[in-house]
Amino acid sequence: SRPILLSRAPAPLRAVQPAAAAMVSKAGAGADLRKFMEKRLDLKLTANRHVVGVLRGYDQFMNIVLDNTVEIVSPTEKNEIGMVVIRGNSIMMWECLDRVK
């Protein structure tokens, strides 16, 4: 007969942190993008996509929220797509287009 596998007890639930507290940089907690908030970012994404927008939020997985986003399809074709959430693992490269203090 096969042995019965017992699972561990589920981890206790943690209190939900306010958004501002969740963005505080901790060792190993992901990128600290605070200095880029409200700045224009140029992102190269997987699937050969390219967008430019204003950083409004992010999380520890580098999922980001961009506002006033424009998708650059070609040098002559651009699509305004507004506010978007971009999954962190689809970001290949990014550049800040505004001056950072």
Automatic annotation (TrEMBL):
Primary role: Plays a role in pre-mRNA splicing.
Keyword Cytoplasm: no
GO biological process, one term: spliceosomal snRNP assembly
Family statement drawn from the similarity comment of this UniProt entry: Belongs to the snRNP Sm proteins family.
Top-level lineage group: Eukaryota
Gene Ontology molecular function, alphabetical: RNA binding
SMART domains per the UniProt record, alphabetical: Sm
Compartment annotation: Nucleus
Residues in Sm domain copies: 28-100
Alphabetical UniProt keywords: mRNA processing, mRNA splicing, Nucleus, Ribonucleoprotein, RNA-binding, Spliceosome
The keyword Nucleus is annotated on this UniProt entry: yes
CC terms in the record's Gene Ontology section: catalytic step 2 spliceosome; P granule; precatalytic spliceosome; SMN-Sm protein complex; spliceosomal tri-snRNP complex; U1 snRNP; U12-type spliceosomal complex; U2 snRNP
Cross-referenced InterPro entries: Lsm7/SmG-like, LSM_dom_sf, Sm, Sm_dom_euk/arc, Sm_G
Protein name: Small nuclear ribonucleoprotein G
CDD domains: Sm_G
Species the sequence originates in: Alexandrium andersonii
